TrEMBL record:
Pfam families: 7tm_1. One of its GO terms (molecular function) is tachykinin receptor activity. It is found in: Cell membrane. It comes from Lepisosteus oculatus (Spotted gar). It comes from the Eukaryota. Disulfide bonds join 99-174. GO terms for biological process: positive regulation of flagellated sperm motility. InterPro entries: GPCR_Rhodpsn, GPCR_Rhodpsn_7TM, Neurokn_rcpt, NK3_rcpt. This is Neuromedin-K receptor. GO terms for cellular component: plasma membrane; sperm midpiece. The keyword Methyltransferase does not apply. The chain crosses the membrane at residues 31-52, 64-89, 101-122, 143-165, 185-216, 237-257, 277-299. Keywords: Cell membrane, Disulfide bond, G-protein coupled receptor, Glycoprotein, Lipoprotein, Membrane, Palmitate, Receptor, Transducer, Transmembrane, Transmembrane helix. The lineage of its organism: Eukaryota, Metazoa, Chordata, Craniata, Vertebrata. Belongs to the G-protein coupled receptor 1 family.
Length: 405
């Protein structure tokens, strides 16, 4: 996940620096990489703020989006520029300790990103295909997120352990000194399977099943009068996440292919244009960190309202009262309940009649309590004091459509 992983490329052949570029190329690449860092850092920080600062946005799906945004902003802030500087000059300026971190952290970050997306896919699958089964609680969600990072640290530990800096005539290199030459290729194959093929396979299966259910038939058990509204809301969320996953897959596919190919065919590392190819592939992979905030803003009304609020100081951005309502108010409208929203409603009206003139009517010379489902029953005529009380109770077995829109 970093330029220094191809350590064999950096230390083979002539130790002089053969990758010096003209200033105009360096300038163009600097603009390209700088744009990625700026958009990714500010965009993902705003996403985190939108979710954590607004209670209405704190759902299971959005907690995983916070983890995804955190891993993306960390990758952009701590790795993208360093990776670019090392790739452009092929010389390491940042010391032994940061060399280890530079190789270690990108793997953990990408692992956390893609498995956060996988967790969202599984959560959407359970919510739509098995709506009556219990959903993840806030505590369980946090446990899943912590587990993802622990597994990411374990997977990335070998590159941290074997990362070294070495001083050659005229320059210093940061590379991974594997015990055996074939270990590098084996590790990249394992890495490709665990942080690319496996999670994408799981998401492909879950979203295919969910897509067939949402676009090809009715949701199981749905009897809501507002069925089509619920369906549209769920489709929007699933469509947004499919686009997020597809973007990630496209951005990282050339990167994995590059390292597998250069590990197998080492002569490619000496090709005249390999540096330009690598910079282009690295840019595409790093750019995956900046697209998600744009996708959220374009496809989700609440995130769009959040971005409007964040940029309301701009003269051409209008933050309306409707946008404020989108972020602040948790609307409750029975007509907008989820398709699997089970409502148990008990309405009672109790009338208690006190008759002061007991002698006038013995049949009414007592306190009467009558319970009816919808109407109050008057015990008798005359001077009486009536007290009515009604109550309504709601119990739910699933979330409302608010969680899907």
């Amino acid at each position: 996940m970093s330029s220094s992983i191809n350590g064999s490329f950096n230390i083979t052949g002539n130790m002089s620096n053969q990758f010096i570029q003209p200033s105009w190329q360096i300038g163009l690449w600097s603009i390209a990489y700088g744009s990625v860092v700026a958009v990714s850092v500010f965009g993902n920080l705003i996403v985190i703020w939108i979710i954590l600062a607004h209670k209405r946005m704190r759902t299971v799906t959005n907690y995983f989006l916070v983890n995804l945004a955190f891993s993306d902003v960390s990758m952009a802030a701590f790795n993208t520029l360093i990776n670019f500087i090392y790739a452009i000059h092929n010389e390491w300026y940042f010391g032994q300790h940061y060399c280890k971190f530079h190789n270690f952290f990108p793997i953990t970050s990408v692992f956390a990103s893609i498995y956060s997306m996988t967790a969202i896919a599984v959560d959407r699958y359970m919510a739509i295909i098995h709506p009556l089964k219990p959903r993840l609680s806030a505590t369980a969600t946090k446990v899943v997120i912590v587990s993802i990072w622990i597994l990411a640290f374990v997977l990335a530990f070998p590159v941290c352990f074997y990362s070294k800096t070495r001083l050659f005539p005229g320059r210093t290199l940061c590379y991974i000194h594997w015990p055996r030459n074939k270990d590098s290729s084996m590790y990249h194959i394992i890495l490709t399977v665990l942080v690319y093929l496996l999670p994408l396979g799981v998401m492909g299966i879950t979203y295919t099943i969910v897509g067939i259910t949402l676009w090809g038939g009715e949701i199981p058990g749905d009897t809501s009068d507002n069925y089509h509204e619920q369906l549209r809301a769920k489709r929007k969320v699933v469509k947004m996440m499919i686009i997020v996953v597809a973007t990630f897959a496209i951005c990282w596919l050339p990167y994995h292919i590059y390292f597998i190919m250069t590990g197998i065919y080492r002569d490619l590392n000496r090709w005249k244009y390999i540096q330009q190819v690598y910079l282009a592939i690295l840019w595409l992979a790093m750019s995956s960190t900046m697209y998600n905030p744009i996708i959220y803003c374009c496809l989700n009304s609440r995130f769009r309202a959040g971005f409007k609020r964040a940029f309301r100081w701009c003269p051409f951005i209008e933050f309306s009262s409707y946008d404020e309502l989108e972020l602040r108010t948790t609307r409750f409208n029975p007509a907008r309940q989820s398709s699997m929203y089970t409502v148990s409603r008990i309405e009672s009206s109790t009338t208690v009649v006190f008759e002061p003139n007991e002698g006038d009517n013995p049949d009414c010379a007592r306190k009467k309590s009558v319970t009816s489902r919808y109407t109050s029953i008057n015990g008798c005529s005359g001077n009486s004091t009536k007290t009515s009380r009604s109550s309504s109770f709601y119990s739910t077995t699933n979330t409302s459509v608010e969680d899907y829109s």
